[in-house]
Structures are given as C-alpha cells and as structure tokens.
Amino acid sequence: MPVSPPVSAPVVEVRDLRMTYGTNEVLSGVDLTVSAGEVVCLLGPNGAGKTTTIEVLEGFRVRSAGDVRVLGEDPARAGDAWRARVGVVLQSWRDHARWTPRRLLTQLGGYYAPYSTPDRPRPYDVGRLLDTVGLTEHADRKIVTLSGGQRRRLDVAVGIIGRPELLFLDEPTAGFDPQARRDFHELVHRLSDLEGTSILLTTHDLAEAEKLADRILILAGGRIVADGSAEELGRRVAGTAEVRWACGSERFVHPTTDVVPFVRRLVEQHGDELTDLEVRRASLEDTYLAMVQRSEAGLRPGPALEEVTR
C-alpha cells in the first residue's frame, strides 16, 4: 500500500496541465498546488475547464500533457489503494433508489475497510456519519422518498464514508436550504481542521467560496489567472479601500490605501461625533469578474486591475 506523503509535501501538485479536444485547447498550461488540510476553491466561468481539471485530478480523464501528482501518484495510473484515499462528491447521486441511506453507506463503507490504517481508520462509523450529515431521522427510508436536500446530504456522506485524505466537492450545497448549507460549512471546516482532510471544491456561490476557502483559484482562458485568499485577491483588483463615515446627518466617503491610519485619524479628529463608520474593500465578486474580464480581453494578470473595474 502506498505510503502517505509527508505533511510538507503538496497533496496536489500540477504543472503545465494541458487538455485538447480535437483542435480545441481547453486547458493551456494549468499550474496549481493543494497542501495538506487546505481548503481550495476553483472558480471560473462555464466552459473554463473546471470540470476537466477536476476529472483529471480524480483520475477519471486522461490529460493531453503536463505533470500531475495527487497524494504522490499519477491519477491516470493509480490503483484501488490510491482511490481509497480520495473522496468525490458529485453534483448528483441517483443510484440505489430503493436502498436506504444506512444500507447504502454500510455497503460502500465495506470497500474501504481493507485500506484502514492506524492513523486513519476506515470507514467512518455509519451511525456517526448519518448524524454528521443530518440524516439520522431518515436513515432507514428508501432513498427514492428523500427530498432533494436530503439526497444532497447523502451525496456528501457517500463522498466521505471512506475518511478521504483528499476530498473533491462539485457544487456541494446545490439544493441545500440555508440551515443545511450552514451545517455543511461547519462539516467542511471540521474535516479540514480535525481530520486534516484537504478539500478542492468548485462552486458558483462566491459567498460560499469566501466562507470556506483558505485559497481561491480563478481559472479562465485555460490557465489559473489568480491564486490567493479572497482578501489578497481583492487587494490585487483594487489597491484602495473605501471608508464611509457619518457625523450626525452628514455622510462622507473617501478612498484610501492606508485604512488603519486613516480611520485612526478620523477617530482622533471627530471622536464621539462619529455616528457611523464602515470600511469597504473589493468583494470576491468584484475580484472574480475583473480577473475573468481581463483574461477574456487577452490581458495578462497583473498586480492591479483598476482599469477593468472602473
């Protein structure tokens, strides 16, 4: 059985990944890394190659060129022992409609038992997992009778039953109500913080990406055009923040690159006269749209993109 890579080694390491379909080059040199325990979100417009990239990393699609290492192996050649270390949550799971969640998870969990290790016992205890994803009350109902949100919770349970070291999440909260989405976000943080699970997710929900991701990658034009935290990327889009304040009924707005000194001066100058104070930075949506527009315009990613956002 392959030995897990040391903590310092990247869990995912991709260099110059390329994918061509006929004469259409979908990926034209993707570079990315994911570290142990890191939550990374891959964003991009439809057709940017997100699904292709993820399928290559999962071992479901053979790349045209480039070097790819996932958990120390080439996914295109990895065997069952490697697959036992990887979890996948697809956009939908509709098989075994007449099974119950408990029966399905028990059956699937059995496949992971031979790959259990002292530091990572496999599979998850089914009862505990059902409770974790909020399906305990529905554990013995036929899957065909579950609501869309309940089936989505089951999708997540199927993806993590083997206690993966690396988890791929494709639009994980599609169909979730607000409470289920919040519960899922807590689960992601628990997997990352307590289990040391590395997570690579795709989503069109930018607020979700901002809440969950340690790092955000933006894929456009066949390449990664941005890599960093939401805050770091925001600073690349616009080096200034907008400070808004009010003194009584008068309201003011001022852009500044030095937020803390400016706010300190405001407080020193106006003191108790300040009745409102707000600092606004570029949102992830601003950042995402600016960088995608820049890529589509054929411009190289740069340290500042003010001309795109104006």
From TrEMBL:
Would I find Aminoacyl-tRNA synthetase among this entry's keywords? Answer: no
- Carries keyword Magnesium? no
Q: Which UniProt keywords apply?
A: Antibiotic resistance, ATP-binding, Nucleotide-binding, Transport
Identify the species of origin: Geodermatophilus arenarius
Tell me where in or outside the cell this protein is found.
Cell membrane
User: What Pfam families does the record point to?
Assistant: ABC_tran (PF00005)
GO: which molecular function terms? ATP binding
Protein name per the record: ABC transporter ATP-binding protein
Gene3D superfamilies, sorted: P-loop containing nucleotide triphosphate hydrolases (3.40.50.300)
Q: State the membrane topology.
A: Peripheral membrane protein
> Where is the ABC transporter domain positioned along the sequence?
12-246
Matching entries from InterPro entries are given as: AAA+_ATPase, ABC_transporter-like_ATP-bd, ABC_transporter-like_CS, ABC_transporter_ATP-binding, P-loop_NTPase
